[in-house]
Amino acid sequence: MIQSTLSEPVPARPVRIDAHHHLWNYSSTEYDWISDEMQVLRHDFLPDDLESVLEAAHLDGSIVVQARQTLAETKWLLSLANSNAKIFGVVGWAPIADSSFPELLEKLRQQSKLVGLRHVVQAEPAGFLEGAAFNQGISRLQSTGLVYDLLIYEHQMSAALSFVDRHPKQSFVLDHCAKPHIASQELEPWRMHLHELARRPNVTCKLSGLVTEANWESWTLETLTPYLDAVLEAFGAERLMAGSDWPVCLLATTCERWWRTLSDYCAQLSRSEQAQIMGLTAERIYQLKLTKGLD
Question: How far apart are CA 170 and CA 253, in angstroms?
Answer without folding.
Answer: 33
